[in-house]
Amino acid sequence: MLHTVNKSPFERGSLDSCLRLSKKGSAILLMEDGVYGAMSGTTVSDIVANAVKDNSVYVLGPDMKARGLAEGQLIDGIKVVDYAGFVDLVANNDGVTPWL
Amino acid sequence: MLHTVNKSPFERGSLDSCLRLSKKGSAILLMEDGVYGAMSGTTVSDIVANAVKDNSVYVLGPDMKARGLAEGQLIDGIKVVDYAGFVDLVANNDGVTPWL
Amino acid sequence: MKFGILVNEGPFTHQASDSAYQFVKAAIEKGHEVPRVFFYYDGVYNANKLSAPQADDRNVVKRWSDLAIEKDVDLVVCVAAGLRRGIVEDNLMDGFRISGLGQLTEAAMGTDRLVMFGD
Amino acid sequence: MKFGILVNEGPFTHQASDSAYQFVKAAIEKGHEVPRVFFYYDGVYNANKLSAPQADDRNVVKRWSDLAIEKDVDLVVCVAAGLRRGIVEDNLMDGFRISGLGQLTEAAMGTDRLVMFGD
Amino acid sequence: MAEYNFETEGVKKTITFLNRKAPYGTIYALEVLESVLISAAFEQHANIVFVDDGVFQIKKGQDTADLEMKNFLPTYGIIEMEKEDADEDEDMDMNWRIIVEKESMEARGLTPDDFKVTVEVLSSAELADVLATSDAVIGG
Amino acid sequence: MAEYNFETEGVKKTITFLNRKAPYGTIYALEVLESVLISAAFEQHANIVFVDDGVFQIKKGQDTADLEMKNFLPTYGIIEMEKEDADEDEDMDMNWRIIVEKESMEARGLTPDDFKVTVEVLSSAELADVLATSDAVIGG
User: Fold this and answer.
1) Measured on CA atoms in the order F26, F31, F32, F33, is the torsion positive or negative?
2) Which of B38, B44, D43, D76 could make an SS bond with D7 (beta carbons 3.0 to 4.6 A apart)?
3) Closest Cα of chain B to C90: distance in Å?
């Protein structure tokens, strides 16, 4: 199952709910304002770094670039994908759960 | 200054931001989905009960009723107002800061 | 006292427009003056005269229009926000008019309180 | 593979419609099929042909319309959500059609993946 | 651009409706119900799930008269009836579940008695299994 | 229904624009800028405040080309210029402040160097004073 999270983890509970209600080994894509969750050095970085241990965490590159976030700021283990990579994630997982 | 909070404190940071950025002695009105913050027995009740000590906290009655919340469930010290009371709060404070 | 009102969300999806309407009605009933309601962002959709809600639901667009006409409230739709979203003279409900953002600044300057409703 | 798409927010205010468009474009480029995009809730505003964004901004409504025509994507606006919000045949952009919610269920049933974009 | 015709004959999927938003502040709670009901016309399996503030959608005693807004609550009664009809009709292959997440419910000081409809209360881990085995998930 | 004419001659107010939302996920960041700029035409005092995810609005290096969305960032440069013009022009009674809340900035791992415009960094308590003395607050 692919889980998509499009909300900032500083303002909304979407990422928390996603992590609570996804099984270990899930694919999680941070997109739109959700990409802020991929940054190191913030108050939510530890939660996301922990999630990386048990899941495959991705971040949508075009959304990062739009918001001025550099790949050097990413939490270790998070993979950057473009829209083509997003499409592959949808195709290669057996469904999509949106955490909007 | 009257502060209006219309977001659920379970899902959004609006109430936290309001409490952090309002001066002691402010008037705070919980309205729309913000009324859930007025309920006792929840994970956010302590924060709101604390806010009641330093501020005048109000909740919009019609929004409570719509959501099936009873006055008996309210945190002590929170006052219920209707729209006429909301109007009075706006008139009697020297401005309105919206936490939307 | 004079209140200016800012509505930033459209009808139905968010409660903002409902809350603003109930507030304006209560303010006028208490003898206050509400010279202007300014519709910004998705708030411009409140002026879409093609809106036709189900019979068992409130008609948000018509309700604003009636209030404007009966209580002489100046309902202003932001021209830039409206153009972007396709709210223009062609589909503008009676009782609304389209104008610039300066009308919001004026409402902030010329009233005792500005009250904002949004998401 | 076949993808069904659900868009729940209007243009400009939320990124959902942009994200959905970029996803659909990428999916088609990769050889997948996107037979239907269903517009629900405020998503119906994506079909408002009166939308006229500034020259330096993208034209969300026209972009969907072009995609539908060029790539043969079935763009369906929910009739009930549209009526409530005033998106009807009168202001419907080319390339969109209005139909019932059953068309969403069908898209969930008849595709390999349903991908939702919203707020 | 042309109308697309899906082959849905004999297709049976499990659609999960993931309700995470409070009622009235936004309309999502109401409009998603319409999509739940329509899936019954296609005899699809459905999980109607209430998580986070979505659990407030089915709180008893909602009275919207003062707001002049449409009350969402009666529609949940219709959904419960649809479910009961499907459960009782042996010729009907349609399995509906109405599920509340325990953690969300408890964080908000609610118990199953607070709800307008009869619900299954599942732990986060149990609900994660339900989501993982859904064919399509529609959030609201 | 009729156009209302406000008496604004000689009126000088302090309008606070309270920006709390991240850019691009929603349009609020962009459209509020238009209302900030128009207030300059009326020579009003303004506090342009960035709190919560609003601090991301002025993060350097935004590049929206891949998204085909309008880049919000250049407009902040215009606002900074308007402020500088007003500061330098002794005949102009218009005081603008561009303010970031320290707590919001630090929680997001940002420093003043990350911002496109020069900002005043205020503590929550200091910012509470600014809000409390505003004549009107417009959230975005």
Assistant:
1) positive
2) D43
3) 31
The ipTM, to two decimals, is: 0.97
Count of positions (residues) in chain B: 100
Give me the domain span that covers residue C28.
2-117
Q: Is F47 helix (H, G, I), strand (E, B) or coil?
A: strand
CATH number of the domain to which B10 belongs: 3.40.1260.10
Structural tokens at position D66 = 């072009």
Secondary structure (3-state) at A64: helix
> And the tokens for F83?
């402020």
- Tell me the mean pLDDT in the region E10-39: 96
Domain E14-139 has CATH 3.40.1260.10: yes
b/e per residue, D32-59, with b = 16+ CB within 10 A?
bbbbbbbbbbbbbbbbbbbbbbeeeebb
CA B67 to chain CA centroid, Å, is 15
Question: How confident is the model over B4-27, as pLDDT tens digits?
Answer: 999 999 999 999 999 999 999 999
Subunit contact E28:D41, Cβ cutoff 8 A: yes
Phi-psi region of F124 (alpha: psi -120 to 50; beta: other; left: phi over 0): alpha
- Look at the block and give the residue holding tokens 């919610």: D101
- F65-92 per-position pLDDT tens digit: 999 999 999 999 999 999 999 999 999 9
Band of the pLDDT at E2, cuts 50, 70, 90?
confident
Match 């419907």 to its residue by tokens. D92
Paired tokens of C116: 């904002």
> With contact defined as beta carbons under 8 Å apart, do C32 and C2 qualify?
yes
pLDDT range class, residue B89, cuts 50, 70, 90 = very high
Active site residue D78: yes
CA B72 to chain centre: 16
Q: Measure the CA angle with vertex B46, ends B43 and B49; round to 5°.
A: 135
**Count of the separate structural domains present in chain B:** 1
Query: F touches E (3+ CB pairs < 8 Å)?
Result: no
**Interchain pair D13, F68: CB under 8 A:** no
In degrees to the nearest 10, what's the CA dihedral of B32, B37, B40, B44?
160
What's this model's pTM, rounded to 2 decimal places? 0.97
Interface membership of B100 toward A (CB under 8 Å): no
The number of CA neighbours under 13 Å toward the Cβ of D59 is: 15
Is C32–B62 a contact, with Cβ atoms under 8 angstroms apart? no
User: How many distinct structural domains can be found in chain D?
Assistant: 1
Q: Considering only CA atoms, which of D86, D90, D93, D83 is closest in space to residue C93?
A: D86
Residue F96, CA distances (Å) to B94, F12, F87 in order: 21, 13, 8
Here the CATH number for the domain that contains residue D105 is 3.40.1260.10
Task: Assign 3-class secondary structure to chain B.
Answer: CEEEECCCCCCECHHHHHHHCCCCCCEEEECHHHHHHHECCCCCHHHHHHHHHHCEEEEEHHHHHHCCCCHHHECCCCEEECHHHHHHHHHHCCCEEEEC
Distance between CA atoms of residues A45 and F108, nearest Å: 9
Q: Write the single-letter amino acid at E73.
A: L
Tell me the CB-side half-sphere exposure of residue C30, using CA atoms within 13 A. Answer: 21
Confidence of residue E140 (pLDDT cuts 50, 70, 90): confident
Please calculate the CA angle F42-F46-F49 and round it to the nearest 5 degrees. 145
Chain E CA closest to residue C23: E67
Sign of CA dihedral F14, C37, D91, D68: positive
Q: Structure tokens of F8?
A: 């604004």
